[in-house]
Amino acid sequence: MLEIDGSIGEGGGQILRTSLAISALLNKPVRIYNIRMNRPNPGLRPQHMASVKVLADLTGAELKGLEEGSTELIFSPKGGGVKNTVIDIGTAGSISLLLQAITPYCIFTGSRVKLRIIGGTDVKWSPPIDYIKYVAAPLFKKMNIIIDVNLVKRGFYPKGGGVVDVSFHPCDELKPIQIGEQSKILQIKGVSYAGNLPLHVVKRQAESAERVLKESGLIPANTPIEILQEEPVNVLSPGSGILLYATMDKDGLLGSDSLGEKGVPAERVGESAANSLISQLKTKAGVDQHMGDMLIPYLGLAAGSSKIYTSNMTLHTATNIMIVEKFLNVKFKVLGGLNKPSYIEVEGRYLNQLR
Q1: Per annotation, catalytic residue among 169, 200, 290, 316
Q2: 89-121 confidence digits (pLDDT tens)
Q3: Record-annotated residues binding ATP (predicted)?
């Protein structure tokens, strides 16, 4: 049984999600201790327990220590098959973070897996579901990971109630990728949205983002900028947000997002997303900091040499690297450093060599 110290690196829920994702994929038990010990409220919280329960259901895993506040968990997968199912995370638990935990297992079941997931589509401390659809999924496809994401209904904090249909295509083998420094912005797209709020909120978010992008001096005047303005929808809790993403000339794809908050003008929301994208574009990186983090397990599982250039090497990414190295017995090389634009490379391994 592999043992993982949950207090290393960023010491949060990311360690739990990555460890369980690879444990389920390899069908190998894992013991995680010191779970979230670096946090003000250590141990498992309801949103973490949801991911554990879902993966346990999908894999037929035996669990020990699954209770709120627990700082130790033993997860022993049994390799059960996945059936088409409905997953209700409860309230506004992040659907995007749940997808990070279950995707590695779901793509390697040998058949298509279709899930309906109910929870939060646009919540703090996690990428919005549009990021998964418009940024993560296209980059995953370059590695032979095909995921169809269909947003049925948005769900904001605190009541959630968002609905997303996800279809995971079966994958036999991952392809290594090379996404280095970029030299040209091909286009910028985005989506501005709201629930239980006036249409002018959507328009102000989009227009302020476009204004900041055009005034930055970084983006050539002939670069297409298209930000979709969604009609506001009925939701359980009001909210708004915006996603921007830039397609680059050498397979690069950078995303940025911002969520609306009570008392924060819609213009500030749009400006925040635009300024974040601009700062990433200045690095000429091929992937943003979220994808730099999310790609790590797949790079280790893609036989051959992979290399990515991320706009910011976060502590989340560094922690993910530590976990993946321990599980897969691979060695990542990082040229750059923490909180800096960085190259990350690895010689991945075939999955059938690890099982």
Answers
A1: 316
A2: 988 899 999 999 999 999 999 899 999 999 999
A3: 100
- State which H helix or E strand residue 254 sits in: strand 253-259
The structure's pTM equals: 0.96
pLDDT per residue over 4-44, tens digit each?
999 999 898 999 999 999 999 999 999 999 999 888 899 99
Q: Tell me the CATH number for domain 2-172+298-353.
A: 3.65.10.20
The DSSP string of 44-56 is --HHHHHHHHHHH
Q: Is 316 among the residues known to form the active site? A: yes
Record the tokens describing residue 130, joined without a space.
């549009």
100 is in an annotated binding site: yes
Pick among 3.30.360.20, 3.30.450.20, 3.40.30.10, 3.40.50.2000: CATH of 182-281: 3.30.360.20
